[in-house]
Amino acid sequence: MNRTFLFANIPSTLFHRRLSSISKDYQFIQKSRLPSLHFQPSLPRLPIPALEKTCERFLRAQKPLLTEEEYGVVEKNVKSFCSQDGQSLQKQLIDNDRNNRQTSYISKPWFDMYLNDRRPLPINYNPFLVFISDPKKEYNSQLIRSTNLVVSSLRFLKSLNANLIEPEVYHLDPKKSDTKFFRTVTGALPSSISWYGAYLFKAFPLDMSQYRHLFNTSRIPKKDSDELFHVDQTNYITVMQRGKFYKVRVLDDNGNIIDSPTIFSCLKFIIDKPSTEEKHPVGILTTENRNVWADARSHLESIGNSDVLRTIDGAIFNLVLDENELAEDEFTSLIRQYLHADGKNRWFDKSFSLIINKRGVAGVNFEHSWGDGIAVLRYFQDIYKDSTEYPQVNPESKPNNCRVEDYVTDLDFKLDDKSKVSIENAIQKFDSTTSSLGIEVHEFKEFGRNLCKAHKISPDFLMQLSFQMAHHKLNNYFVSTYESCSTSAFKHGRTETMRPLTVEAKELCLDFSERSRHSKEELISKMKKASDVHGNLIKEAAMGQGFDRHLFALRLLSEKAGKVPAIFTHPSYKKLNHYILSTSTLSSDVVHLGAFGPVVPDGFGIGYSIWNDRLGAIVSNYKGNTDGSGLLSCWQASLNELYELLKL
C-alpha cells in the first residue's frame, strides 16, 4: 500500500514565507491583500504523463532492484503493456480526466486509497510535529501556552473562513516577487487568469483546496471504507484530559472569538479540575483496526452515544492536555508521546489534535487522508508566530468572573460491558504495538547544507545516498525507497513518489564499499552526476511527470475492468511498492521534532532534517523485524565517510 508522508519534497523557501499581513485585530490572524483562494480557479491541472515516458521511468526505477534476468522479464511486460493494454487504459484515463476538469485525475483515487485502508491510524498514518518553545520561557506553562495557541488557532480559522489568509505561493526569487507590487498586479487580475500573472513574476501559487478540511473535520470508521465528515461551522472545540472529554464554547452567537480571559478561565477550570484518569477511555478505540473500530463505534451509537460522538466529530479541533512533564530535550520520549502515547488521551480520527504537556511543550498529531501536510505546516507556522509575537495572555493573567459552566460541558459516554471489553482489548493491543516500536534519534554535527553546496551537490541527494549506504552496510542489499514530492502546484494535486535509489546512487554505494579502489576525484565526480539525476527526478515529480501516481490510476482502471496486465501482477511491482525505506523531510524554523512510523512491518520510517551546519534523522522501526539502532549506526558511519571525502 502506498503512503503519502508528512511533508513532500518541495523547496524549503516555501516554508520561510513572511507573514506580510499579520493582523493585530483580535478576530483575525491575517488580513491579506489577496483573497486566500484568489489563484485557485486558474491553477493549472495536473497533467497525465505520456504512457511511453511513464514506462521508461518505471523501468529506470526497477533496474537497481532487479537481477538482469528479472529485469528482462519486467522489460518484456512493460513493452507489451505500453503497446497493448496500456493504450486503452490511457485513453480511458484521459477521457475520465477530460470529463472532470474541476479536479485532478489522482484526487479521488488517492482519498479512497487512504479511506479504504483498514490498518490503525496511529504509527501507520498519523504523523506529528512538535513546536519549538516560546522564546519567553515564562510563557511555556501548559495553561498560558494552551490559551495562546487556541486563540491563535481560532484567529487562523476566522481568517481562513473570511478568505483573508495569505495565498500559498512559491516564490523563485522572493526579493523580486514577494512584494506589494506583486500583490497589487495579481490582485487586479480576475481569478480566472490570476495564476498567469503570478507566473510572469516567476511565482507559483499552490493548491489550497485541502485547507477546507483543516478544521471541523473527522474521519469516521465504516466497514471496509471510512468516511470524511466535515461541517462548515461550529462554535466549540473539544478538550481531552486524563481520557475525559469536554466541550468548550469558543465562538459567540455571531461567530466571533470569545475574549481570551474567558478562554483562559475555561482551560484553567479543566486543568485544575480534580479528577482521576478515565477508567474506560473511549479514545483508545481510535487506535484500532478500522473495521474493529467501526463495529465498536456502531455499538456505542446504539446504546445512546450518537450525540457525544457527533459533537467530537464536528469540533473545530481537539485540544489535548497531557499530564507528562517531558522537557523538549527528552527527544525519544517526546517522539513517542506525540506519535502515539498510550492512546488513552487521544482521538486519532480528528483532522488534527493540538497536544500540550505540563511543561508547555506543544505539538500536533494529524490524520492524513484529508491532506498532505502543507496545510498543517502553514497553520503550524502561522499560529506559532502569532502566539509568540502577539500573545493574548501572559504569566500575570488571572481568570475573569465568567460563569465557566456556560462555556464548558462534560462529554460523558454511556458504556456497557461490551464497550468496556472493546476498550480493554484496544488498550492491550495498542500497548503491544507501541512496545514493539523502536525509535532512534541522531544529529550529525560535522557538516550540513553548506558543505554540500560548496561541492555543488544537492544536500537532499547526499542524505538519501547516506541512507542507501547505511542500509547496504547493514544488510548488503538494496531496497525500494520512497521520498514524497508535492504536486500542489496543480489543482487538487497531492503527491508524487520520487525514488532515490537510482542506478547512479547504487553504483556509488558499491564504490564506497570498495573505497580503496576509487580516487577522491572520481567519487566526487560521480556524486555530482548522481546528484543531477536526483534533482531531475524531483523536478519531474513536482511537475506531475513521475510514474507512480499514473500507474496507480491505470492499475485501478484495469482492476475495475477485471483484466489486470502482467506489469501489475509480476512480483517486481509489489516489491517496488513495498517501501523498506520510507523517508520524508521538512524545513521550518519553528519545528522542533517531526516524524512518522514505518509503513511496512519490515521497514523503517526516516524523518530527516538538513541545516546549514548539521544533519538530523529520526528512525522508527519494529524491533522484532528490523534493526533500527544498527541502521542508525551505519548511517553515522556513512556520513563520516562522506565527510572525509568532501571536507575542505
**How many individual β-strands?**
18
Helical fraction = 40-55%
Low-pLDDT segments? 1-22
Widest sheet, order of strands: 11-7-6-8-9-10-1-16
User: How many strands, what sense, and barrel or not for the largest sheet?
Assistant: 8 strands, mixed
Keywords: Acyltransferase, Fatty acid metabolism, Lipid metabolism, Transferase, Transport
GO biological process, one term: fatty acid beta-oxidation
GO molecular function: carnitine O-palmitoyltransferase activity
Catalytic activity: 4,8-dimethylnonanoyl-CoA + (R)-carnitine = O-4,8-dimethylnonanoyl-(R)-carnitine + CoA
Gist of the model:
The protein is an alpha+beta fold and 648 residues long.
What's the topology here?
Layout: H1 51-62, H2 68-83, H3 85-98, H4 107-116, E1 128-131, H5 142-161, E2 169-171, H6 174-177, H7 180-188, H8 194-200, E3 203-205, E4 217-220, E5 227-230, E6 236-241, E7 244-249, H9 260-272, H10 290-314, E8 318-321, H11 331-339, E9 352-356, E10 362-366, H12 374-389, E11 408-411, H13 417-435, E12 437-444, H14 449-454, H15 459-475, E13 481-486, E14 495-498, H16 503-513, H17 520-542, H18 548-561, H19 566-569, H20 571-576, E15 581-585, E16 591-595, E17 604-610, E18 615-622, H21 628-646
GO molecular function, one term: carnitine O-palmitoyltransferase activity
Catalytic activity: 4,8-dimethylnonanoyl-CoA + (R)-carnitine = O-4,8-dimethylnonanoyl-(R)-carnitine + CoA
Protein name: Choline/carnitine acyltransferase domain-containing protein
